[in-house]
Amino acid sequence: MNLLLEGLMAVTAKQAAMYAVGGALIWLAIKKEYEPTLLLPLGFGAILVNLPLSGVVNQSMAGIGETAGIIQWLFETTISASEALPILLFIGIGAMIDFGPLLAQPVLFLFGAAAQFGIFVAISLATLLGFDLKDAASIGIIGAADGPTSILVAQIMRSNYIGAIAVAAYSYMALVPIIQPLAIRLVTTKKERRIRMAYTPGSVTRRTRILFPIFVTFIVGLIAPASVALVGFLMFGNLVRECGVLNTLSRTAQDEFSNLITLLLGITISFSMKAEAFVRTDTLLILLIGLAAFVFDTIGGVVFAKVLNLFLKEKVNPMIGAAGISAFPMSSRVVQRMAAEEEKGNILLMHAVGANVSGQIASVVAGGLVISLVTQYL
Asked: Where does the sequence pass through the membrane (predicted)?
């Protein structure tokens, strides 16, 4: 009974707040089905690491000495020391992606690049709000709309806010169906949203599909060496998918492997959600900056498409610019749903998917470029 009372009396107000945060993440995962494979372990882990005298983090115990906690051990070995978990997850992501719609319309690469605009807006905002450069760069990568990239950059930059960054990145990815329509309507007219686009893709040969991940790895490795791990593992996963001789491994990478790594990543990242580091004004600022990043990603892609239309005879629907973020396939589905709502029978899905997968590449390249620029400056 004394031990029970000792645990209850040791709970702080900040730890109680983290129980509420953890509960909210679990609720979003189960009730709303927002990114459940990550938000559920992240929420449950947030509760675990904030229990007084929790055995999941390292503790000094009378008569026993230092005890090793499993979540802290996972964090120190698979994220802090090697960044292994977020990098390995890219194998599964690459195996899931069909780059065919992008290869059929290479011009869609431009939309993926334009939709990274929110990264630079977020970095600027974070700097103006007083964050140092390494933290501002880490916060800005929330605008990549790619959870593993956000986690990896924050860890490489040794950011003090990796927990808040992970929560913001994955939460806003889950909220793309809410955030993007509002941002799209803010900068487009009804007439623009009704623009129809014919889909007449060229054929994409098997050889092209196989050579694409190899060439991308070489090119990105030369342009942005810091992103080689991200792009390389993403392209390796895609090569496993497209080679045609590793079908069983491809299915495993897409399903069991990705799910296992995501579960481990969620519960491991929760180590950085300890109350003393998470419950602070800075966390709220990071969440607000992350929201701004997603909004300006969307606006950047849409405005780029509108500018492009000034020079095109066959106009593009500017909504496909919004699909240039890395949140695959949610963003492309949002664009298609909006197109169908504005005008029945308007099909933009394949154009949006092409822009969406280009955003996957652009986001990891942007992450690598930010790492390179910031490390050179520091």
From this structure: 12-30, 37-58, 70-95, 107-131, 161-187, 210-237, 285-304, 347-374
Q: CB count, 10 Å around CB of 378?
A: 10
Preceding amide of 52 cis, omega within 30: no
For 6-42, the pLDDT digits (tens) are 667 678 888 899 999 999 989 988 998 877 888 899 8
Structure tokens at 350: 């394949």
Taking only the tens place, the pLDDT of each residue in 98-139 is 888 888 888 888 999 999 999 999 999 999 998 999 999 999
Contacts 24+ apart (CB under 8 A), 247-251: 250/95
Sign of CA dihedral 212, 214, 216, 218: negative
CA distance to 10, 39, 119, 228, 356, per residue, from 142 (Å): 34, 16, 7, 19, 17
The DSSP line for 41-54 is HHHHHHHHTTSTT-
What is the maximal distance between C-alpha atoms in the chain? Answer: 79
